[in-house]
Here is the input.
Amino acid sequence: MRALISLASLLVVLAIIGVLVKKQLATTQAPVPALQAPGAAAPTGSVRAQSQQIQQQVQQQMEGLMQKPRSLPDDESK
Here is the structure.
């Protein structure tokens, strides 16, 4: 009798774990939208083309940030 209850509880635990794993895998396989700047068009084409487009966007943003002049802090401690 004890063995039967142990086996039944083990099967229940395995079923619960199976359901949780299935839910977890279903959420990780959902498509994730690409990060875009506001007003940018949605990327189309293959994953490679989307990757290259994102790389170009990041490169353009970095170049734009590098071109902005920074104001120097005033040294009032002198």
